[in-house]
Amino acid sequence: MKKIMTLCGLLLLGGAFTCLSLNTAHADTVYGPFHLTGEMVAPYGIHEYTFSCWGNEITGVLADANGDVDIHVYDSAGNLVASNDGLDWMPFCQWIPPYRQVYTLQVINRENYPVQFDLDTN
C-alpha cells in the first residue's frame, strides 16, 4: 500500500510540473517566447541557442527531455547567470537580466545516448 501511495504522489507531482506555465507574470524574450520541439542533442553533447531578453524582468527556461539534460545560461560577457544541473529530465531555471542583452543557452546531454527535448522560454 505504501508503494502505491508513493507512486500516486510522484505521478501527481509530475503532473504539476507538466502543467507549469512559464508565461504567467513573466517577461517575454525580446522577440516573444519560443517553443522548440523535437530538438536532439548527441550523447554527452551540447546544443547551443542565443536569444535576447528584456532587462529587469523574470526570465525562465524549461527543457522537457527523454533523458538527463542540464541547462546553462550565459550573459553577453560569458558569465554563468543561471543553471540547473540536477539529475532530472525536466530542468528549469530563471533569472532577472539587469538590462536588455543577448544570452547563450546550452542544453547539455548527460546521457550516453542521443536525447530528444522540447525547449520553452517565457
Q: Which CATH C-level class is it?
A: Mainly Beta
**Main sheet: strand order:** 1-8-3-6
Secondary-structure element order, as H and E?
A: HEEEEEEEE
Query: N- to C-terminal separation?
Result: 40 Å
Integer-rounded radius of gyration: 15 Å
Secondary structure tally: strands = 8
CATH T-level topology? Jelly Rolls
Assembly state = single chain
Mind summarizing the main beta sheet? 4 strands, antiparallel
What's the architecture in CATH terms? Sandwich
Shape: globular
Count of alpha/pi helices: 1
User: How many domains, in number, for the residues?
Assistant: 1
Low-pLDDT segments? 1-28
Question: Structural class, from helix and strand content?
Answer: mainly beta
Average of per-residue pLDDT values? 81
Give the DSSP E fraction (strand runs of 2 or more residues).
35-45%
Helicity range: 10-25%
Please sum up the structure shown:
The protein is mainly beta and 122 residues long. 14% of the residues lie in helices and 43% in strands. Mean pLDDT is 81; it is low at 1-28.
Describe the protein's architecture and organization.
The strands form 2 sheets. Strands 1-8-3-6 form a 4-stranded antiparallel β-sheet, with no helix packed on it. With 122 residues, the chain is mainly beta. The protein starts with a helix and ends with a strand. It has one helix at 2-18, and strands spanning 35-41, 46-53, 59-65, 69-74, 80-84, 92-95, 101-109, 115-121. A hairpin with a 5-residue loop joins strand 4 (69-74) and strand 5 (80-84). 14% of the residues lie in helices and 43% in strands. It has 1 helix and 8 strands; from the N terminus they run αββββββββ. It has one domain: Sandwich (Jelly Rolls). The radius of gyration is 15 Å and the shape is globular.
